[in-house]
Design goal:
Blueprint: H1 30-48, H2 60-73, H3 87-113, H4 129-163, H5 169-187, H6 196-217, H7 220-242
């Protein structure tokens, strides 16, 4: 465990990120970092080409990154997942509200200053609730996969910053947040018709908010739950609009 002064004030001091430091077991090296990154790239590429059709595609960003974590970390792969505790409820709800506010403000500013493209998912509803249910269910593995393909690069950059660049833990976390948010935005470029401002800036800023629960708890479940709540809210509004 690092010195408590290396932690941000909002972090829970009894938990640390896995894999990134020499004190971690296992500690990421060049080989394991490349395995993480290649798994993310392969999973996303297969997702992008809709490999396996609509019922298989959502799992591509889960299968390969999670398999990489299990291969690298062996019995320690579960360090990405921690037990949810009562105080996580307020954290999840607070982040959910904060993200809706930030997303709304950023989205408003971007639409006023730049040309934007609609998310095709929000245009796919036909007002039929029975048709919408499979869509919502498919987003569960899809959004969990988005957490994996964000957090694995975050851990790789964090490890690189601490061990290779000799950055402080706090500085490396900031760098990892920025890089992973940019990557997350880049993942959405095809969704938003390659609109760089909308994907990198708009989605990237929202991703930093979504990262907060993980930064605080080191538990991927917290950021995943907020992610589902956020996107389902947006999709629910789009579905409601399709019924009008």
């Amino acid at each position: 465990m690092n010195n408590k002064s290396d932690f941000f004030r909002f972090e829970r001091k009894n938990d640390d990120f896995p894999f990134y430091s020499e004190l971690s077991s296992p500690s990421l090296n060049l080989k394991s970092s490349l395995i993480f990154l290649v798994s993310v790239a392969v999973g996303f590429a297969l997702f992008l080409i809709m490999f396996g059709g609509p019922n298989v595609q959502p799992f591509m960003n889960v299968i390969f990154p999670l398999a990489a974590v299990i291969f690298v970390a062996r019995s320690q792969w579960t360090s990405l997942f921690r037990k949810l505790v009562a105080k996580d409820i307020l954290l999840i709800l607070g982040t959910y509200v904060a993200n809706l506010i930030v997303t709304g403000i950023v989205g408003f500013l971007i639409t006023k200053l730049f040309s934007t493209s609609a998310n095709p998912a929000t245009d796919s509803f036909n007002g039929n609730f029975a048709d919408a249910i499979p869509f919502f269910l498919r987003t569960i593995p899809m959004l969990f996969g988005e957490e994996l393909i964000t957090i694995l690069p975050f851990l790789v950059v964090l490890s690189f910053g601490v061990k290779k660049l000799k950055m402080s833990r706090k500085s490396a976390i900031i760098l990892a947040c920025i890089v992973s948010a940019i990557l997350f935005g880049a993942y959405h470029l095809p969704t938003y018709n390659w609109n760089i401002v909308q994907a990198i800036l708009g989605i990237g800023i929202a991703r930093i908010v979504l990262l907060y629960p993980y930064l605080k708890t080191k538990n991927i479940w917290t950021s995943f739950i907020v992610h589902v709540m956020n996107d389902w809210t947006m999709f629910a509004l789009a579905f409601w609009a399709s019924t009008r």
